[in-house]
TrEMBL record, chain B:
Residues 24-44 have a biased composition (Basic and acidic residues). This is Protein O-mannosyl-transferase 2. Residues 1-59 are annotated as: Disordered. It is found in: Endoplasmic reticulum membrane. The chain crosses the membrane at residues 118-139, 188-204, 210-228, 240-255, 300-321, 609-632, 644-667, 712-732.
Length: 721, 762
């Protein structure tokens, strides 16, 4: 009974300031978020994914990992959104089934919580509560953060997790040695890092900064000679596990949930491999379920190209021949065209025939086709053999023409033997499997490889994609790899029966399951490599324009009057933040050089505090801003907001330092206090002045709008009456 | 000399022990190590394979005095390295007697220097100037056209240029030898490095042709060597050898930057090293601030002012030599072109003021802005209106000609009337008779701007063809001066201004530059044009003196043109693009000459054994250096030799590793097209690091084995390395010295069985 102290008491300390700024944050962010009840800017983009989540339809979005979309979809789930809304136009009115309020609630909550987090961050950096209050007030009255929080957008969620990660890491770092709480803070930090990266790839920058900071701290632990080797090892391993391994696992976890939630096929199926599609309900599996696994002689198959550039397509032929002469005067064999066709069609069916036998049906037991076997491919509807020969292909003259062979009696013999080369085989006698096997078809006479050239044929080829035989084919190219997508064992001996058979759908049921890791790797790879055509957007901007806020984004305009919402920041705060950064760099360099000469202007502890604050605030700005100069994608002002948040936190830090260490006389203190007050007031006025553009109400007259156009480069919309 | 230096280090140590300053002490400690290692050198000279036994033989002062560490280099190995590298580089240098790969560019540009014809290239001029000079001195007359790879040289004297490059290429192994020797104080390490470079087929191939790379790498290695030597002089600041190496570093830096912009990475490396050095000096409280400033100023002079001066001198020479009009004219402004003999602007005569009925070309004032251009092709569907394209084009072309017309009539019969500020005109494209036109459609790339098209037939269009002429800084009624006035064209109906965005159109636009109509009316060079050619038969031609640009303006202009050109080298769609990650694993080489079995083939590919050894050593280095760091950080007690090895790894190895990173990683961020040979500068650092790492690794075998066994391991390791390198060179030497007959898949080929990766094309 000695361990228990009676009576059990709970001490409760409440920081009223913190509560106050939280409430203010909630007020500014949540005030009237259901207005306007129409699609605002990028909601049109994220909304479609929310709808797809509600309908459990698979999609792929190359802009970021799925966690962000999932968090937004949670809002939809809470509001019982059924996903029925057409997200096609900014400004479209929401129908009554769209729970606007709940959809916007989560980003707004995250945005509000950034305000107290800013407070805590400054406190954790070792600065006073006054300073922390200043930091949270600046964040509170930052119009751009407010705008970005109030709609169904991801940046406020990202900033929330970034700040949370940093705050909890600093808590961990400052906590007394080896208490349970200490490790919980580290755990929280690792988790929020993973969440930040999971919301947007951009979170990676801050995560790396945090890892760098943690590495330096760990290095000090390693250098601590009072600890024994075992303890050091434990410390290092735990930090590594929590900050590196766990976030990686969590990241996988997001994809796991994503794939569990989205089990239905949808519009983006075609970007994925057949095996992936087969794992989705109602997608390819509708057609492919229950197909025989092993391709045998006599099988009827469709062959899909592994390359989905420019489009996914199937090997195709039809009753039309290559023109005798092309437009440029070159001649062709005038045999039947073989193309790649991006739609399902009965002409995509081919029959695999054993060259040594006449039979076109599968014997029983079926004789499977193995790696290295020689086959002929017979086109199901026209009964022409797949053939290639030393004639230049129509669009790619350095490659061979591929035809359905027609004998014109012009001493052009049939060359229709193909060797099956399974590229992803495990052994050299592997059987050709439906969907799973990736196959190259190598022409026996010329050793050319059947491949998609990437060009499309002109009108005479119905603009379908060109298929050629490539003799100088090297290594592994997706364009030369095919897989069997639809497959059935042929039963009919007669051509007429066979045509009927080809037109009937295949079915039975067994499902083919990919492992989660295989799906994850494919999905992640597609997300990183698929690039939509980048073009400039009307409101896109360059990183250099962000510092001075030379650009804005019009988010929404009332359909009939002048009420509008813009992403415009608080000019005063932005200027102060730039100034603070500049002063910080000056201070830092001065101290650094003078310390090197052993001239200590400030005590050691104070210097370390200043450095840490600089690493977090200036470092946070640097890592979240500079990488954009190297990016080639379309950039917008909102990409700057995470950097801006860290930069704003620099202001109170510099102010406190100037106040306590640089300005020494009481009169200077008084004057500086006045300056601070004046600055805060002007921040408030600037916030008030621009709040009509932030909240979209009240409506302003054209003159008032013109007065708000502080920079010529801002696009503010005027409605002509 | 020797005595003085030995004394220096001798007298330094008691004084620094007295003040307990850490850095200088460590330096003298290193000195002692070095000195004692040198002591064993004479023995090693007689027995080259003998191991490095430094550290074992105490630190007796008299011996340290006898063998100074300053300028001592083992001459015999150095000379054999130099001789071997000359032999390997000059063997069959005249083969093949036709143009190989990029010789077609650089040989041609060398000829341009001999012929004094102006051209444009994305690289700075020094490399090509040196090639030209080498050709000139060896009797090449500049008449060979270098049209395409495979052209036979016949009687033309090409060996001089190749030989010049080979000489510079042969300097790399000796330089690397000296650098590694300086950093590790171990002759075996230096020999390993040198043999890696001598017997690498990639370096041999790259050194045997008329290319910029041997010249570039010569300067890079020169700079690194001078820098390392300079670091070594830190105990004797402001001595003549200190100044010599400082200035040599500067000279080599300007040389490497003068050949290719890759030299910037080299400057970065030297810059970081210098900053680190200055930081150390600043922390040395015995050094007064005045002395520190001296150091700072000396370095600023040697490493910034001097290279800058030399670099500008290179350009000055370039512009003085090339004074005749040539293929590069159109990239430059009208003022620049007027300098060139033979250009139509050189001492030009044309009507002075613009008038109705004139035929003109309009040049954008943005640097390398191009001429207003149009052609028969239309904008594709989905890109604004389906009308004729209007672009900006850098080359001189008849499609750049425009006819100036009155707003309402095509009649030119009356006397010519001058166009004045504020007048309204139409511009008819001479070749296609369409009018310059704009309307409320988005421009193809710059979506904030409006599209500009060619519209109408035979000069009849609509009111959207009207443009108002505005002379910058002019007032109503001012005439428009040809060449000298900056003109803006304001679109009448939408109020926007004719603008060249500088963005390259996709394939449908023939990769020409986008022209738009900008609603933002700020005066920028993008929206200003000048009239360059001007033909009006009704007006008298007057000799015009264009304001000649100053040298600094020319310098700036040519740099911007070069940078634009560089970033404009985008990979084509169907071309197989080499990725940076391909390079260290030797994934794919480059065809220098020949494809088929019947041709004489040379294939640029590193010796795979050497390259994979380098890759392995990079990993080994990282592991070893981390172990060192952790051991030191944990305060482990290390013996004298081990401590010295740690220091070699961390300082010498660290420098080389940094060099490798700086010459390699930036390529990941580059959007331009990349080639395999871009990796070779980084590979130099990697090879040097390999020598240093492997030698240290072998010497530390005694951590695991008994001293006797580890001695065998050390020797055995060195022999295995040497034999491996020689044997692989024997196997792969046909890559550099030429292959004939069947390709590698044929068992009778000389390369049969050697195509270890499918991606190699031989």
């Amino acid at each position: 009974m000695q361990g228990v102290k009676l009576p059990v008491t709970v001490k409760c300390e409440i920081n009223v300031l913190l509560i106050a700024v939280t409430v203010l944050g909630l007020l500014t962010r949540l005030y009237g978020i259901h207005i306007p009840a129409s699609v605002v800017f990028d909601e049109v983009y994220y909304g479609q994914f929310v709808s797809l989540y509600m309908k459990r339809v698979f999609f792929i979005d190359e802009s970021g990992p799925p966690l962000g979309h999932m968090i937004l979809a949670l809002g939809g789930y809470l509001g019982d959104f059924d996903g029925n809304f057409v997200w096609n136009r900014i400004g479209a009115e929401y129908t009554s089934n769209v729970p606007v309020w709940t959809l916007r609630l989560i980003p707004a909550l995250c945005g509000s919580l950034c305000v107290p987090l800013g407070y805590l961050l400054v406190v954790e950096l070792g600065y006073s509560h006054f300073t922390a209050l200043g930091a949270s007030l600046l964040l509170l009255m930052e119009n751009s953060l407010i705008v970005q929080s109030r709609f169904m957008l991801l940046d406020s969620v990202l900033i929330f997790f970034l700040l949370l990660a940093v705050v909890s890491y600093l808590r961990f770092h400052k906590a007394p040695k080896s208490s349970l709480w200490k490790w919980l803070w580290l755990f929280l930090s690792g988790t929020s890092c993973a969440f930040a990266v999971g919301v947007k790839y951009m979170g990676l920058f801050t995560y790396l900064l945090l890892l760098g900071l943690a590495a330096v701290h760990t290095w000090h632990v390693i250098g601590d000679k009072t600890l024994c080797n075992g303890k050091v090892l434990v410390q290092v391993v735990v930090r590594f596990l929590v900050l590196v391994v766990m976030p990686a696992l969590l990241y996988l976890g997001f994809f796991y949930v994503h794939l569990i939630l989205l089990y239905r096929s949808g519009p983006h199926d075609q970007m994925m491999s057949s095996a992936f599609q087969a794992s989705l309900e109602g997608g390819l599996s509708r057609i492919t379920q229950g197909q025989p696994l092993e391709v045998a002689f006599g099988s009827q198959v469709t062959l899909r190209s592994a390359s989905s550039k420019p489009l996914p397509c199937w090997l195709h032929s039809h009753k039309a021949n290559y023109p005798i002469r092309y437009e440029n005067g070159r001649g062709s064999s005038h045999q039947q065209q073989v193309t790649c066709y991006p739609f399902k069609d009965v002409n995509n069916w081919w029959i695999i025939k054993d060259p040594s036998r006449q039979s076109l049906v599968v014997s029983s037991p079926p004789r499977p086709v193995r790696h290295g076997d020689i086959i002929q491919l017979l086109h199901g509807m026209t009964s022409r053999f797949l053939n290639t020969h030393d004639v230049a292909a129509p669009m790619s003259p350095h490659s061979q023409e591929v035809t359905g062979y027609i004998d014109f009696n012009v001493s052009m013999p049939a060359q229709n033997l193909w060797r099956v080369d399974i590229t992803n085989r495990e052994s050299d006698r592997d059987v050709w499997k439906t969907i799973l096997s990736e196959v190259q078809l190598i022409h026996v006479n010329t050793s050319a490889v059947l491949k998609l050239s990437g060009a499309s044929l002109p009108d005479w080829g119905f603009r379908q994609l060109e298929v050629v035989g490539d003799k100088i084919y090297k290594g592994y190219q997706q364009s030369g790899v095919w897989n069997v997508e639809e497959h059935r064992y042929g039963k009919s001996h007669e051509q007429k029966e066979r045509e009927l058979e080809l037109k009937s759908p295949t079915h039975d049921d067994i499902s083919r399951n990919l492992t989660f890791m295989a799906k994850f790797i494919e999905l992640q790879w597609k997300m990183l490599t698929v690039r939509n055509e980048e073009s400039e957007h009307k409101y896109s901007s360059l990183p250099l324009e962000w510092i001075t806020m030379d650009t804005n984004i019009a988010y929404w305009l009332h359909p009939s009057n002048n009420a509008q919402i813009h992403l415009i920041g608080n000019s005063v705060t932005w200027t102060l933040a730039n100034l603070a950064l500049f002063i910080y760099v000056l201070l830092f360099l001065t101290y650094l050089l003078r310390r090197r000469r052993k001239i200590e202007d400030i005590p050691e502890a104070c210097w370390e505090q200043l450095v840490l604050a600089g690493v977090v605030c200036s470092g946070g700005w640097v890592v979240n801003y500079l990488p954009f100069f190297l990016m080639e994608k379309t950039l917008f002002l909102y990409h700057y907001l995470p950097a801006l948040t860290f930069q704003i936190l620099q202001i109170p830090v510099v102010v406190e330092h100037l106040y306590t260490h640089v300005l020494r006389s009481p009169s200077q203190h008084k004057a500086f206090g006045g300056v601070i007050l004046a600055a805060l007031c002007s921040v408030y006025f600037c916030y008030r002045i621009f709040s009509p553009l932030t909240y979209g109400q009240p409506e302003l007259t054209s003159e008032e709008l013109a007065a708000l156009r502080w920079r010529d480069s801002w696009d503010i919309l005027f409605r002509k009456r | 000399m020797e005595g003085r230096c030995g004394e220096g280090s001798h007298t330094q140590s008691p004084s620094c022990a007295a003040v307990r300053s850490r850095k200088p002490c460590m330096d003298t400690g290193k000195h002692r190590e070095k000195a004692s290692s040198k002591k064993t050198e004479p023995r090693r000279a007689t027995r080259p394979s003998s191991s490095d036994t430094r550290g074992l033989n105490g630190t007796s002062t008299e011996k340290r005095l006898r063998y100074s560490d300053c300028d001592y280099t083992p001459l015999c190995p150095l000379l054999s390295v130099a001789a071997l590298s000359l032999c390997t580089r000059f063997y069959r240098i005249t083969e093949p007697p036709h143009v190989c790969w990029d010789e077609t560019h650089f040989g041609k540009m060398g000829s341009y220097y001999i012929n004094r014809t102006f051209f444009f290239d994305v690289h700075p001029p020094l490399g090509k100037m040196l090639i030209g000079l080498a050709g000139y001195l060896t009797g090449y007359d500049g008449t060979f056209p270098f049209i395409k790879p495979g052209d036979k040289y016949e009687h033309h004297n090409y060996w001089g240029m190749r030989g010049f490059c080979a000489v510079l290429g042969s300097c790399l192994p000796p330089f690397a030898f000296l650098v590694v020797l300086e950093l590790s104080h171990s002759t075996p390490a230096a020999l390993i490095t040198a043999s890696l470079l001598i017997f690498d087929t990639g370096y041999i191939t790259l050194s045997q042709y008329i290319l910029l790379d041997p010249i570039l790498m010569f300067f890079i290695m020169g700079a690194v060597l001078s820098m390392v030597k300079f670091n070594h002089q830190r105990l004797r600041p402001f001595s003549w050898s200190w100044w010599l190496w400082l200035l040599l570093t500067g000279v080599n830096l300007s040389g490497s930057l003068g050949v290719k912009f890759v030299g910037l990475f080299n400057i970065l490396l030297v810059g970081i090293n210098t900053a680190w050095d200055l930081w150390r000096l600043l922390g040395d409280l015995h050094l007064s601030l005045v002395d520190f400033m001296k150091h700072l100023i000396a370095r600023m002079f040697g490493l910034i002012m001097l290279p800058l001066f030399l670099y500008t001198t290179i350009f000055a020479v370039h512009f003085v030599i090339l004074n005749r009009s040539g293929p590069g004219d159109g990239f430059f402004s009208s003022a620049f072109q007027s300098r060139l003999i033979g250009n139509n602007l050189h001492n030009a005569t044309m009507p002075e003021y613009l008038a109705y009925g004139s035929i003109i070309t309009l040049k954008n004032l943005r640097i390398a802005g191009g001429y207003l251009h149009s052609h028969w092709h239309l904008y594709p569907e989905g890109v604004g209106a389906h009308q004729q394209q209007v672009t900006a084009y850098l080359h001189k072309d008849y499609n750049n000609l425009w006819l100036v017309k009155r707003p309402n009539s095509d009649d030119f019969t009356w006397n010519p009337e001058l166009i004045r500020h504020g007048d309204i005109i139409r511009l008819e494209h001479k070749e296609t008779t369409r009018n310059l036109h704009s309307h409320l459609h988005e421009a193809p790339l710059t979506k904030k701007h409006l599209q500009v098209t060619g519209y109408g037939i035979n000069g009849t269009g609509d009111p959207n063809d009207l443009w108002q002429v505005e002379v910058c800084g002019g007032k109503k009624g001012d005439p428009v001066k040809v060449l000298r006035s900056k003109v803006r064209l304001l679109h009448r109906s939408t109020g926007c201004v004719l603008y060249s965005s500088g963005k390259t159109l996709p394939k449908w636009g023939w990769e020409q530059v986008e022209v738009t109509c900008s609603p933002y009316l700020k005066e920028t060079p993008n929206s200003q044009w000048n009239i360059e050619d001007h033909v009006n038969p009704k007006l008298p031609n007057i000799s015009l003196h264009v304001l000649k640009p100053s040298f600094l303006e020319i310098l700036l202009e040519s740099h911007i043109v070069m940078i634009r050109g560089n970033s404009g080298l985008k990979p084509k769609d169907n071309e197989i693009n080499s990725k940076p990650w391909h390079w260290p694993i030797n994934y794919q080489g480059l065809r220098f000459s020949g494809v088929n079995e019947t041709e004489y083939r040379v294939y640029l590919l590193g010796n795979p054994v050497i390259w994979w050894l380098n890759l392995f050593s990079l990993g080994l280095f990282v592991v070893m250096v981390s172990l060192c760091c952790v051991a030191l950080q944990r305060g482990a007690k290390l013996g004298g030799t081990k401590k010295a090895h740690c220091q070699v790894l961390m300082e010498g190895g660290g420098l080389l590793f940094l060099g490798w990173l700086l010459h390699y990683l930036p390529f990941y961020t580059m959007g331009r097209i990349l080639y395999y040979h871009h990796y070779f500068p980084a590979m130099l650092f990697s090879s040097m690091l390999t020598g240093l790492t492997l030698d240290t690794f072998l010497q530390n075998a005694d951590l695991l084995f008994s001293p006797a066994v580890s001695k065998y391991i050390l020797r055995g390791g060195q022999i295995v390395l040497l034999v491996g390198i020689l044997h692989s060179f024997y196997l792969f030497h046909p890559l550099s010295y030429g292959m004939n007959g069947p390709l590698a898949h044929d068992p009778t080929s000389s390369m049969a069985g050697l195509r270890w990766l499918d991606s190699w094309e031989f």
